[in-house]
Amino acid sequence: MSFVPARSRGLWLALAVVVTVGLLAPTTVHASTVGVGSGSSAPVVRAKPRHLLVGVQDHAMWGGQTNADRRAMLDRLAKTGAKWVRIGVPWVMVQPRPPTHGDPGWAVWALRRIGQVVHMARSRGLRVSATFGRTPKWANHGLGTLYLPTQDATFAKALHFLAKRYRGRIGSWEIWNEPNHENYLKGASAADYTHLLCRAYPAVHSAAPGAVVVSGGTAGNDWQYINRMYQAGAKPCFDVLATHPYNSDRSPYFKPSGDQPFWFQNVIYVRKIMRRHHDLATPVWFTEVGWSTHADPPGQATANRGVTPQQQAKYLVQLLKITSHRYPYVKRVSFYMDQDEPLGSLHKSRFGLFTSDLRPKPAVAALHAYLAGAH
């Protein structure tokens, strides 16, 4: 069943009012004011387990791969029982030149690659969610890909073109990646990001009315950043709220003692913020989560600790079981990532379900067994 956004679409006036009001006098919300205290524990919802829509981050848009490589990976992902893939669509890659009357600036090869990847995924029964971000230098006076464009309208126009071109084939558009983290977005506040999100929302829906707009998944369950988004008027500007609840090297059953964002079970604080802003009808997606399989060098920081391949397999299944039972508002989970990649550090490079030479880790069999028997 396709997801049909439930919000009212009379947006142009509504967005202007909400954003203006949200920006007039934003107030800081502390943990105590929303019931977010260090002594809180995760509520256990006694619901019948359900089959979450499970996906995998697929780096099929990256260079250095042939179409045969892409098909081989998508074949493997489909056989796990996964139902969707999350792909990155970098703006800097697809529109490297400024649009002019004679040249819209699009890279034909990049548009063709998107179409090929989407076709490959869908032909294997995999839905596609695209993450759009990374600014070309012409759109922000050369500041770099990690900075927002000078004009939000420029971003919205590009997104409108892509949403229309792949209408009916790309089912959801995630607006930027981890906007709360300087590794992915520099020099921008939550309000700045919200302005971009609120221009992107009508751009997608006017081009592809059935598509879903997903807020940029925050690094961790960053409830404070999400609260600032709501204060800036974000509520009518997304259909799904996304987070990336990485859990270091701990099991999902680990109960954190405080409300720090970088723990899986602290999604409860995100939901409390949503409750405070009367937004409980909006679902949550975990658009990235996973565990890196590597041995820890001496002195390794806690945030970058690895697990064994066997632990990775066990933790992936535990996360799905806990999410099904305790967090019924979480509708999708995307595991990061398809295969090990050389990403600049040992920790970042070993999150794959498959090794770099496509050998399956134990997580593949565990995920397949769980999804085959899930209800």
How would you portray this structure in words?
The protein is an alpha/beta fold and 375 residues long. The protein has a single domain (56-292, 302-373), classed as TIM Barrel (Alpha-Beta Barrel). Helices cover 35% and strands 12% of the residues. It has eleven helices and nine strands. The protein has helices at residues 11-24, 67-79, 91-94, 108-123, 152-165, 190-207, 223-231, 267-276, 309-326, 346-349, 362-373, and strands spanning 53-57, 84-90, 127-133, 172-175, 212-215, 218-219, 241-244, 284-289, 330-335. A nine-stranded parallel sheet has the order 5-4-3-2-1-9-8-7-6. The longest helix has 18 residues, at 190-207. The chain is globular.
Count of distinct structural domains: 1
Output the CATH topology. TIM Barrel
Q: How would you classify the helix and strand content by structural class? A: alpha/beta
Percentage of residues in helical conformation: 25-40%
Please identify, by name, the CATH architecture.
Alpha-Beta Barrel
- CATH level-1 class: Alpha Beta
Please give the number of β-strands: 9
> What ranges have pLDDT less than 50 throughout 5 or more consecutive residues?
1-49
Calculate Rg over CA atoms. 20 Å
The dominant shape is: globular
Averaged pLDDT, please?
Answer: 88
Percentage of β-strand residues: 5-15%
For CATH, the homologous superfamily is named as Glycosidases
> What profile does the largest beta sheet have?
9 strands, parallel
Counting DSSP H or I runs of 4 or more residues, the number of helices is 11
- Biggest sheet strand order reads 5-4-3-2-1-9-8-7-6
